[in-house]
Amino acid sequence: MARLGLVCTASPRAAQSVLTAPGRVSVPAKPVGGSAAGLAPEVCAGLLGNTVLSVDIRTGYSGGLQVPGVQPACEKNHLGNSRPVASTAACKEFLQLPLPTATRPDRVCRVLPRAEERTAYQTHQEHPGDEVLPSQEVEHAMLGPPSDGFHMPAWRSNRLSPREEQELELDNSDVGLAEELWSQHPPWEGTLLGRIRTMMAMEQSLALETICRCLDEHSQLYLQNPEKQVSVFDSSVHKFLEFLGLDPKKSEEKAFLFRLYGLILRECASSERVEHHLACLLELSHQPSSQREGIALAVGLASARHLKEVWALLEHLGRTRFLRSVVTPEESQDEVLNASFLTAAILLTRALRREYGAQNYKFTQTPELIHCLLSMLQKEPNFLATLLRQKIILVIVGLSNLRPSLKPVVKSRVLQTCLRSVYSLPPPEALRSSLPPLEPAPDVMALYKKTERALDLLLQNFVSENPSMDEVCFLLQHMEHWLESEMTHEVKRAVQSIFLLLQHVVGSMKFGGEAMPSILGHQIGLLTLLWRDRDECTHYHAHQCVFLLLQLMAQQKGVSVDLSHWNKMKNFEAKASKDWEVKLSHTAKALEEGLTVAQHTQLVLTLLQSLCGQSQLRCDLASKLLQLIFSTPSIRTEQVAEILHSLFRELPSIQFKSIQQTMMKAVLDLGLQHTQEVVEVILSLCHPSERRLLSLWKALAAQYQLARKVITLLYMKLKLRPPMEHVRTSHQVQLISLLALGTIYELLYTQEYRETVRWAFAGILLGLLTQLHYLFELGFVEGISDYEEDILEARPLGPCRTCLEALKGLFWTTHYWEVFAHIKLLQGWELFEHVETYTEGVTLLARTMTQYNCEIKAVLGQAVIFLKSVEERDNVVAILIITEFLNSPDISQHTSRKTISSSLSLGLNHPSKWVRASSLSGLSSTLMHPKKVTLLRSQLMGLLEAFLQPNPKDLLGLMQILGDLLHRLGMQGVGALSLKVAQHLLLLFEDERAEVREGAIFLFGDVIHSSGHKCQQALKALAVQALVPLLFHLLDSSPRVVMRSKLTLLRCAIVQKWEFRKELFSKLAWGRGLGAENDIFIYMVESNFGSYHQFLMQAFTYLGSSQNNLKVAAMKFIGGMLQDYFTDLCFYLKKSDVKTLKNHLEALSQDTDSTCRRFYRRSLADIVELSYFVT
């Protein structure tokens, strides 16, 4: 089965329903009930929709449909040019129509638009039941193919003549023309019908088979030689015509045979016979245009009596064969094809809505017809020369009113295509210049206004079909792309369409129900962003759209609209820009009152997403409006998470620094409103080690009280420690305490939190100490001992390592870096890496804090609280700290002896042996028993006498006991004897035994650090005297002596209050090579102005040292002093000093080491020169 042709009918009603009079295509509809005397609209629609074509009564050309799988035949026109009968289609999936280019006037069908005939037609419209008289019948002229001699440019394919434009108007004129044509019948038809009715059923079947065979022979001969006029002689047909009393020569007229076939089918009484013979008819070739028209004529006649059978067969064929194939159209398409197709759709739509009671029919192929129309619309050039855009949109408006209603997917495609077709046109000022040369030139602006009005009607019609807020949001959703366009004229058109739509809805509709789509907040946000648009019309309409939407929602809720905020906004329109923030403030309040929580959330998310745009004006508007929203109580608790997640995603892409600063202020405002929720959400955004959250944390630190709340909440999260049996190793990341730990670690090194961390020092300290013990309990110790501080490579740390680094950072980043440095140089932080030495580490930390008076009062208060905790780890840490703090000379200023006694007594019955032992040790301290001070002092005097002997027994034991006594007695201990002890210890720095040197150097640091105010100045002088030996012993052969020398050198610097003592520690702890040695040398010398000559004299004494490394250190030091401080040495040295230096130097002249001899020769010249300037 290839093609179908024009449907002609036998009655006015049937003729009226054939909607292809100048048009060509319709769509099958499914009958609900009843039948008509003529071709009912659903049958006509079925014929046309299932590839039935019509005769174009304007041009006289009969077109056809391309059936999938069948190639079109070629015909010759009067110029001898070959062209396909059918080629380009208006729709890829539905139709493939022929592309005529011009029409010969002598082949045009005569149309009689007489007034009396129109009157007769209108009378019939008023009395549709009247019979059609045979006298009204006239012969239907056969139409020939058009000429192919003239081809029009592709861009003119859709340009219509004034007459064609008139015929496309949506009035009744086109239906009247079709009525006049199809209401006429041949004069012989009445007599013929009488004879057909007298035939028996078998005779009718035989006649139909004979005619069908004859028609088939006609078509076969035509296909073999299309240029030759063919005629077929069939004796059976001749006899049958004679039987009917007709001229046998009419058997050579195909049009007559098709009409006869249709009349016999109409008079058949058997449905089965009708179906059989109709199927045979449809099996004929469809390639000749006359064949298509004849088949359509016969089917139309048969449908007058056998509507159900005809419909069923056509629908089956259409759905199973034609509509399932996608036809590939050619590149061009002329105005005849588009105009015909469009007129057919207009007529179909009007007929269904007006004459046949559209409520009784379900027009199921509306989507396919709309698909065709949209395909035409998509192929329109990007300029306005005709009203074709308007006509297509208006036809779609009419089709959308038919049953069943359009599905959302169809409506979505309609909106996308129509909006793009109209909005993407050139801007108004360029519409005329975009036109190709046309005569006469069209009124482009008039065309555009009509097209724009048609689009507005489409939008309003969709809302009228489904009056609900959901439908409004559905339409606005398709406008979003154009609201975000970078083309000013596209945005302007979209906003204006929305404004007119909302005006229509608010003014003429009232929605039922309480549906409040959350997406509406997003759409309000997009419109709000246009308030700073450079186009005055755009930002005015954007204002109005937001107001209308809020008014619409208020009407739906049944409440009156509070216009106070909006009226204030409007009053600011004409004022200076300095009032812009006041206007935005009223906007924020109006949005808060008018939107639901979900809509408000979508609004905020939309504003956040716009922060990354290229327009600084739009970004500035969004950021300031967000800041105003965040600063008011409009943000609910349930909104915080989604808002912060969106902000976190957008922050890295914000291009303007001012916008980033504004958003940080907004985060601060949000944190003030919802501190706990904000902290919890930020914790969950990503792992703290990624450091992408620092900007948010810094924003919260801008307000000191809020920063304190943040640290407090983090401390509370740190203490959320589920029992070990409830935690799995593979789910470390799920522990909120680990996230809080990582965040605290990062904030310790954030400048904005320095003061807050110091305020919370005590709580953080005990929280970290107990957290580390908790992680030991869980077994999260992976990587704790593999960490290397001097490697800058950023690697993620394990939980234990993070906790330990946070503990170290707590001291390093505050004013108590000396505690960190002291423990670092004692290698005490390594004690925290193992659970077995954990308590030793806590004890050492507490003792060091006591020596440097580090937050004794605050930490002691926290320790007392932790001692009452139900967790054993808290009790262990607390008692170890309290016990060490009892040796502080200031402990009595912070707490009473009674309070300490009661706290320690609680620990005597504790299950932990550490708690019991430490409690007992604390109860025996000098604070609890002041009389012990006198006893310890008497014992100290005896020890000092033994220690100061030339060769004391068990020197190491004596130094250890002295150190312990000094720790217990503190400032009130040794007194004036400390000077003698320090002097004696200086002599032991050069002892041959490494362990003695180590003990003496370490004890020297304790002595000068724990001396009272009376001996402080004298001990400082001794500290200066110890600097050179300590400096040289940094190269000692014993590593332990080296570490003790570093610590004591630092303690001397702290006692003397060097300016660069923190930098000195950095070099002592992590410095390597000659650079570090040179820096330490500079720090020491520059911090002791006036002692240069003393340092030089001390250095020369080491030239005779038995340790070669000390001798080398002395040579380096002397060389540096003579080179860098020669002038100062000339000022301070005496002649006798220079002689002493020469004597020490002469000892190297005979040294076996070549390095020493070279140093001798190089330095001798300097010493000689120095002697010339010394007085």
UniProtKB/TrEMBL annotation:
GO terms for cellular component: Golgi apparatus. Signal peptide: none annotated. Residues 902-1165 form the Maestro/Maestro-like HEAT-repeats domain. The keyword Repeat applies. Residues 489-711 form the Maestro-like HEAT-repeats domain. SUPFAM superfamilies: ARM repeat. It comes from the Eukaryota. Residues 249-318, 331-463 form the MROH2B-like HEAT-repeats domain. This is Maestro heat-like repeat family member 5. It comes from Dipodomys ordii. The gene is LOC105992315.
